[in-house]
Amino acid sequence: MNPLFNDTLSPADQWRNNRWLLTLVGVLCALTAGWLIGSWGTMGVLMSVGVPIAIILLVGVLLEPRLGLLIYLNLSFLIGFTRFLTADIAVGTGLDGILVLTLLSTFLNGKRMEWKRLRRPAFWVLIVWLSFTILEYFNPEHPHPSSWFYHARSFSLSWFLLAIIVSVNPITKGDIKVLFIVWLVWSFFAALWGFKQQYIGLEPAELRWLAEGAEKQHILWGQLRSFSFYSDAGQFGSEMAGVTLLCLILFFETDSWLYRIVYVLLAIILFWGFAVSGTRGALFVILAGFPAYFGLKRNPVHILRGLMVAGPVLAILLFTHIGDSVYQIWRIRSALHPTEDASFLVRLENQQKLRNFLKDKPFGAGIGTSSGAGQRFSPNYFAAQIPTDSWYVQIWIETGVVGLTLYLLMLASFILIGTIKIWQLKDPWVTTMMIALLAEFTGICVVSYTNPILGQFPTSSILFINSFLFTTCDRWDTHKQA
After folding, report:
1. Cβ distance 408 to 422 under 8 Å?
2. Stronger pLDDT, 330 or 16, i.e. the higher one
3. What is the Cα gyration radius of the chain?
4. Hey, is 248 helix, strand or coil?
5. Contact predicate 313/290, CB 8 Å
6. Do 270 and 244 form a contact (C-beta atoms < 8 A)?
7. What DSSP letter does each residue of 4-23 carry, written as one string?
8. Where are the domains of the chain?
9. By C-alpha distance, which of 401, 362, 361 is closest to 381?
10. How far apart are alpha carbons 303 and 295 in whole angstroms?
11. Which candidate among 6, 221, 318, 395 keeps its CA 20 to 30 Å from the CA of 370?
12. Global pTM?
């Protein structure tokens, strides 16, 4: 009897000679699908479609870890849709599983990985922060150590795994283009969904989410703060501002008028997405990112062009009341006068309370004691009862002044390493892309003082990936070895 597959035959002939095998597999699949649908109804239909797709994707990720990275990025945007689910599904844990699977695939395909890139300074800086967060598990102040894992993921663990994957995989310029396209497309749809919420109305699931407690942050003076499919309006607004910055930089850097038209239209749409979020602090993504862009360019002409665009807009917001009748413009303008804002003054009062609480806790109250995990595992602990309002305040509460100092030094190190690498680049396209990534990274780092977005999906996924693109950007330079 002939073997199932004969090496002397072409693949088409091999499958033609074994049609019985395909028929048998097809019949078994059909019977299984029928049984699932008959037994489970709609869930059976979903399983019949979802299980084969999941198997195909599993095999695909194991064969090509870059596919896993792409899936992880896309699912990071989809996580906001969990508010439409009635069942309690641990989507975040699923994302962790994809990340671990991608890392496993990286090791399985180790022969074509560039492991020497793990010797780069940025990776060692991250190792220092990772080690500190691991030691924080043993913080004697921690009332519930098992909650450590819930915040350690966004503090350092996910960043560490993505750093390995991004650093060693043979990522190409084409992959970077795909990342930009995915980012822009999701952001565009997020803006449209935000407009739908603002001007058409909310879905029942979104109304239910507001009624469960989110209403007090998202409806102010009877005006909705759009949140799209992000975790909240703060993250939505900051992401819209960040991608607006990205489009403006690409507008200035491209020579194609077609692309310029596309980028300026996207910038307008995304900027209004930021406006309808009512997230005033998100303006600082642009106010910090633009100077970073100018500094990275080191070109007086570009600086002058940028000032000619940004200067008048900033002057109108600062020194006039034009557009105050439009709620969104009034909210943006108020960000430039924080001392007149009652909520900002409340934040300062909360921070003073935290200073008194943390004065004898240089290593903080322990990772997982504030915000969501704190309210879940130790709701009566003081750290869980004070609103963090800021990513850096959360770091400060949970890791103390020592941890906050290390964290800020790490971010500053990434910006410094990225700047040095970018200034050494010769390839114009790579230079433009990396400047855009680093400028946006800088803007998000600044706005994280006002909103705890740096540890939320999809912002965290994007920044963790980008940080190890611009700190290793010399590998794509025309005059460098890949």
Report:
1. no
2. 330
3. 25
4. helix
5. no
6. yes
7. SS-TTS-HHHHHHHTHHHHH
8. 37-112, 113-476
9. 361
10. 8
11. 221
12. 0.83
